[in-house]
Amino acid sequence: MDLLDDVLAxxxxxxxxxxWCTTGDGTALCAYFLTGRSPASQARTLRLTDAGELVVxxxxxxxxxxxxxxxxxxxxxxxxxFGNGEQVSxxxxxxxxxxxxxxxxxxxxxEPDPPIFTPRLTVVTDTEGRQAWFGAARHSAGxxxxxxxxxxxxxxxxxxxGVLMTTYRSNGQxxxxxxxxxxxxxxxxxRTDLLDQLWSALPPHLRIAAxxxxxxxxxxxxxxxxxxxxxxxxxx
Length: 236
Prior knowledge:
mainly beta, Glutamine Phosphoribosylpyrophosphate, subunit 1, domain 1, seven-stranded mixed sheet, seven-stranded antiparallel sheet, 15% helix, IMP cyclohydrolase activity, IMP_cyclohydrolase-like
């Protein structure tokens, strides 16, 4: 497995990413990050609401855009759900109705943003951090419009082990859908360590915000974001 730093450094534009990993003593950590190229994409931040949700919100008073502004993480008594779009709320509601994680992640679709058709990435973990279910709704590499749905169940991570999904993969010239998943190693021992490692590995001119939190303690998330910029418009 490659270090988290090396995996991200080898990707000129990771887009949005979800990570589940462990520290040296086996403590589970979760992370969500955003990078963006356009002014509208960069005019966002991560914040915790009074309801205890982690949301991707505009930095200005602009109108809500369901592809750019959404609940990125929600926690209940039994589950933590995080990801890169409005499907996070859908999955959390399904879990609240008693559905198992595999069923809760089923039936999701990629984003309607041609030509890249951004994957929808979602992670479900129990609040003790013992196991996680990753879901990715992806567009076919060919001409099919039907969604490819990948579900990955991960448990018993070795110390400093982890699984990473990113929406995009780029060599600096072209942008494509990211790899299905990557198994990584991290040197982090605390939430702050992981946030430092993640933030420094993201492309400085593209990074927008990142949050690291432990299952069962979303309200204690460590959050970092780029300096707030003013109102702007444009594509994602």
